[in-house]
Amino acid sequence: MTAQDIIQHLHLLPHPEGGYYRETYRAADTLETAEKHTRHVSTAIYYLLENEDKSHFHRIKSDELWFFHQGQPLEIILLTPGQPTRLVLGHDFSRGELPQAVVPANTWFAAHLPLRAGFALVSCTVAPGFNFADFELAERAALLAEFPQATELVELFT
């Protein structure tokens, strides 16, 4: 299948940070966060990036788990103290690719296809569940000030 076939078959929509997505699950149960916000216990989405699409640097207030389904390897870049951390989702374990990865809560991260060709289909689950009120898209100047060692990445993904 092509990326367009999958987008149509799974009814994916353009995502505000880049790529395509569709929410597939939102737990009926809720909880109260430390900030006194009510959130669903968990949520899940399909997420697809193709060719030169990228997920720009952003962060959310919950842990996010990524699960690789098919396509080309997908790189997730986390901005952490010191050097950025790179996680590659895929099926080639001999190359260090992972079938799943965790992005800790409040961590700036971005994603793309390192080969810039083809597509990657993944799922993401968030616990406590995703809410756009907990989503923050990075501002280039602020990220450059906080992570000067990652200037090239910040400029590429903001």
UniProtKB/TrEMBL annotation:
<dbReference type="InterPro" id="IPR039935">
    <property type="entry name" value="YML079W-like"/>
</dbReference>
<dbReference type="InterPro" id="IPR014710">
    <property type="entry name" value="RmlC-like_jellyroll"/>
</dbReference>
<feature type="domain" description="DUF985">
    <location>
        <begin position="4"/>
        <end position="138"/>
    </location>
</feature>
<dbReference type="Pfam" id="PF06172">
    <property type="entry name" value="Cupin_5"/>
</dbReference>
<dbReference type="InterPro" id="IPR011051">
    <property type="entry name" value="RmlC_Cupin_sf"/>
</dbReference>
<protein>
    <submittedName>
        <fullName>Cupin domain-containing protein</fullName>
    </submittedName>
</protein>
<dbReference type="InterPro" id="IPR009327">
    <property type="entry name" value="Cupin_DUF985"/>
</dbReference>
